[in-house]
Amino acid sequence: MDIQRKKGVLDVCVLAVLKRGPSYGYRIVSDVSACIQISESTLYPILRRLESNGCVSTYRKAYNGRTRKYYQIEQPGLDRVQAFLDEADEMKQIYAFVEGANHD
């Protein structure tokens, strides 16, 4: 997959995981990896960017004697997921067009 396209898709996949509920880094990597490969070194810059854009917020919570940083989706993140879904029909038309061009 093209690196720029994958970058945008990874953002939306991270937001989709957080749409299910607050989560933490390792768990987000695990959940997203079920769909598309991602590493922790890729995830954290994405989370920082999403946080700076207001798409996610963070809070800390004690877990097994340690403090764990949780991420939760905010309204701009929800809007971004919806915009991605709204583009699906347009993308299907583009793929169909490209496929049709390959059959000539």
Tag the structure with descriptive keywords:
single chain, 104 residues, alpha+beta, Arc Repressor Mutant, subunit A, three-stranded antiparallel β-sheet, 3 strands, elongated, WH-like_DNA-bd_sf, PadR family transcriptional regulator, ArsR-like_HTH
Break the fold down into its secondary structure elements and pairings.
Elements: H1 3-19, E1 23-24, H2 25-33, H3 40-52, E2 56-63, E3 66-73, H4 75-86, H5 88-102
Antiparallel strand pairs: 1-3, 2-3
Helix pairs in contact: 1-2, 1-4
Protein name: PadR family transcriptional regulator
InterPro entries: ArsR-like_HTH, Metal_resp_DNA-bind_regulator, Tscrpt_reg_PadR_N, WH-like_DNA-bd_sf, WH_DNA-bd_sf
Domain Transcription regulator PadR N-terminal: 14-80
Low-pLDDT runs of 5+ residues are none
Return the CATH architecture: Orthogonal Bundle
Q: Within the CATH hierarchy, at the fold level, what is the topology? A: Arc Repressor Mutant, subunit A
Q: Structural class per helix/strand content? A: alpha+beta
Instruction: Please report the distance between the alpha carbons of the first and last residues.
Output: 24 Å
**What's the structural domain tally?**
1
**Helix and strand element order:** HEHHEEHH
Strand order of the largest sheet: 1-3-2
Describe the largest sheet: 3 strands, antiparallel
Number of strands: 3
C-alpha-based Rg, rounded: 16 Å
Quaternary structure classification = single chain
Supply the number of helical segments. 5
Query: Based on CA inertia axes, which overall geometry fits?
Result: elongated
Mean pLDDT across the residues is: 91
CATH superfamily caption: Winged helix-like DNA-binding domain superfamily/Winged helix DNA-binding domain
Portion in strands = 15-25%
Pfam family, one: PadR
InterPro entries: ArsR-like_HTH, Metal_resp_DNA-bind_regulator, Tscrpt_reg_PadR_N, WH-like_DNA-bd_sf, WH_DNA-bd_sf
Protein name: PadR family transcriptional regulator
Domain Transcription regulator PadR N-terminal: 14-80
